[in-house]
Amino acid sequence: MTPTLTPPAVGMAGAIAWASVHHGFTRSPRHLAGIAALLSSAGIATVRPATSGLMPRRSIHDPGHLTRRAIERAVHAEVQGLGDLPWIGIGHSAGSAVALLEAAVRLENGFSVAGVILLDGTDTIRGVARLPDAPILLISNPPSKCNAQGALTARIRESREGFVGLTIVGGGHGDAERIGSGGPGHVPAVYRFACGDHSAAEDVAIAESLLRGWVVDLALGRELTLRPGHAIVSGWVEAGRVVEI
Question: Class of 12-244 per CATH?
Answer without folding.
Answer: alpha beta
